[in-house]
Amino acid sequence: MATRPSQGAPAKEPVAHRFFELIPSGTQIDFVGLRFKMLVLSWALILIGLASVWMKGGLNYGIDFAGGTMVHVKFSQPTPISDIRGALSRPDLKEVVVQDVGKGGQEFQIRVLGAEHGGETAIADAIKTGLRERFGEGTYDVLRVETVGPKVGKDLWRNAALAVLASTLVMGAYIAFRFEFRFGVGAAIALIHDVLMTIGALSIANMEFDLTTVAALLTVVGYSVHDTVIVSDRIRENMKKMRRESFANIVNLSINETLSRTIITSGTAILVTAALFVLGGSVIHSFAFALLVGFIVGTYSSIYIASPIVLYLEGSSGKRR
Amino acid sequence: MSRTVLYRVALFVGLAVVAVVLLLPTFVRPAPSWLPWRQPVRLGLDLQGGTHLLYGVDIDQAIDRSVDRSMQDLERELRDAQIGASSVEMTGRIIHIRLANKDRRRDVESLVKDRFPGLVRATPSEGEGGDDDLAFTIEPREVQRLRENVREQALKIIRNRIDQFGVAEPTVQAQGNDEIVVQLPGIQDPQRAKELIGRTALLEFKLLAQGPQAGTVDKPGPGVQVLPGKSETGRRQSYLVERRTLMTGDVLTDARVSPGSATEGMAVEFVLDARGAKQFGQVTTTSVGRNLAIVLDGVVESAPVIREPITGGRGQITGRFDFAEAQDLANVLRNGALPAPLKLMEERTVGPSLGQDSIRNGILSFVVGSASVILFMVLYYRGGGLIADGALLMNVLLLVATFAAFGFTLSLPGIAGIVLTIGMAVDANVLILERIREELRLGKTPRAAIEAGYERAWYAIRDSNLTTFLSGLILFQFGTGPVRGFAITLCVGILTSLATGVFGTRVVYDMLTTRRRLTTVSL
């Protein structure tokens, strides 16, 4: 990269630069001062989210995790959900969940959860028969049929937990290696915060938790650390420049200096995930939702969670400089 | 313009041209004949519709069977060597031999060593009772070998059967230790494919019982069993068949469909090996005029009359098959039985209309997402934003071209990954541009500010992209199918966005600054 020395001599008269700015340069928001309030707010939100998971008896697992059968149908006419439920109250079907996907009452997902209902096509066949008998051939279109047996779901659980944990640790370790150990700790805790917050939001919004949702969580982990790197990088740079300044001030200054960049890049990322969420269709609805929430939370956490932890660890490990 | 700048400009122009050539077959159909590249981007099942099947191979059962076979062989060998054993039993995978005479212990040990290389002495904790008790178990290396063999064999057989099933571009892949993924693009009703895959074909030839000792269906005679026949037009037929199996399908070397006759429909022609030909010759010679039942997995497929002795080792099965049935039967005969039971663990079918919807939704969110990012960048950073936008478009071009070049499969999450890449790729440019702004505020000339901006921003860009790349790799490890498609997009997108967003834009700035002395910079 650019390692040549600067060639241009400093301008004789400083040119007054006018930029179009969201965040004026020299902004001084006291992020560090707010850190305890935000800490309380954050973990309170997480607790609410986890309480929601607990009260609903777990997340809204898709058949990827729970095992079972899912049939996604699209009717040519808007159809009352009660008619579909009626069509599916058959002796060979139990505990059928019908969900309107939100396409003007025309698209529905029919689920029968439980590993014992997966891996074989008997349930799917029963659902198709029920629909055919009630509505007749040709009035609807079977978009998707999925059935997952018990072993897959069990393996998936372990792999998903392992993958999220592994990437959190790898990210923390990388930051610790690149910067200092406490930055790594801060990043890892911020990531755990983001994952928990996103899971809570998924539960409250009753979004389906499936394979792609886990992929979204892992992406959130990768993206959130992105922001943390930028802030940490600036803290390190400022630490070299301002040896007199207190660490708290350096952290605060660094966050402020990178704020514009943080808002803009998070903004563009959030913009595209919002597009995916609104326009991406029902198949990736929960995936886009998890990304959207995760990116917002990830931006917030690199400011309010990661840096204050670094600050706290500085305080507890005594004055280093 | 300096040389190095010129080279880099040429490099990017070249890349763009290559990318366009790679992508033409995807977007222009039919692809013009002069194109050197004809392979369009592969679409995942979630986009083109089709069936995804996940099978578990019960390898443990295959190992158990192998131990069981060893035990039976060992019992026979002991008898042949006249070593008296009061019992030979199997508990789990351990073969226990209780000797009648404990002095023969050494003989047994050397016999096993010579004849059964796959068996080793079990550890004492696994229980040898006393001097007259010996315990053997399967060697760990042998278990490993069996595992690999069984999986490979199952994979090969499934692949053969699917290839002959006649579907365009099927995929059959091993996944993990004991799973096999089968993907059938364009297949909505996988029933026949599943039957073909799942069939554990045991083919037997038996004689139909005749005469007074045959008995009736309700009361078969001694040595006679009742077997169901292939149901035709809803009617089921039962056959009285002699229990004795004359030969099994393992003597078959080949089977193929032959046109047959108008009344009998398609026929399956088969070829036997030398041993089979001899056996078949004997049977058919002594039983001319009787019916030979061809029994597949306990069902009588056909019971033709033996018209004449067949000694040449070639025969024909007719049974009012249509072409597909005849072909499936021929496949089953040819490929033999699966080495271990398969269990269907997962089945996913995507209809073609959903795939179309998904493509449309994906493209729509791509257009809206990227248009808003592009617009924002121009409004906010003006000239600098324009350059970044150019890099962004180039990035998408290279990213999708990579999919075409390497044959990666584009899934719906993959499209989402492209959209996401748009949102995240500008990050590098924002970092650089913000840095340049800061340097300008400090009073540097545009050229110096650009220099410093790239230099200072690089470390943050490198670290932040590396972490995202790492999480992409972990995601790839974790995921299957569409999720892998997403992980690939994420990782490739990082590489292409570094190439275009950092190195590409730099080339543009270098071009601008070497041409004329910049006094102002549009940011």
Properties at a glance:
heterodimer, A: 321 residues, Multidrug efflux transporter AcrB transmembrane fold, Alpha-Beta Plaits, 9 helices, 61% helix, disordered N terminus, disordered C terminus, B: 523 residues, Hypothetical Protein, Haloacid Dehalogenase-like Hydrolase, Chain: A, domain 2, Gyrase A, domain 2, 3 domains, four-stranded antiparallel β-sheet, 20% strand
Walkthrough of the structure:
The complex is a heterodimer of chains A (321) and B (523). Chain A is of the alpha+beta class. Helix content of chain A is 61%, strand content 10%. Chain A has helices at residues 35-55, 63-66, 81-87, 122-135, 150-178, 181-204, 211-241, 247-279, 285-316; strands at 60-61, 68-75, 96-100, 107-113, 140-148, 208-209. In chain A, helix 5 (150-178) packs parallel to helix 7 (211-241), helix 7 (211-241) packs antiparallel against helix 8 (247-279) and helix 7 (211-241) runs parallel beside helix 9 (285-316). The longest helix of chain A has 33 residues, at 247-279. The radius of gyration of chain A is 25 Å and the shape is elongated. In chain A, 48% of the residues are buried. Chain B has three domains: 3-49 and 351-515, Multidrug efflux transporter AcrB transmembrane fold; 63-143, Hypothetical Protein, Haloacid Dehalogenase-like Hydrolase, Chain: A, domain 2; 201-323, Gyrase A, domain 2, CATH 3.30.1360.200. Chain B has twelve helices and 19 strands. The longest helix of chain B is centred in the C-terminal third of the chain and has 55 residues, at 352-406. Chain B is elongated and about 110 Å long. The model of chain B has no long low-confidence stretch (mean pLDDT 82). At the A-B interface, strand 5, helix 5, helix 7, helix 8 and helix 9 of A face strand 18, helix 9, helix 10, helix 11 and helix 12 of B. Strand 5 of chain A pairs antiparallel with strand 18 of chain B, so a sheet runs across the interface.
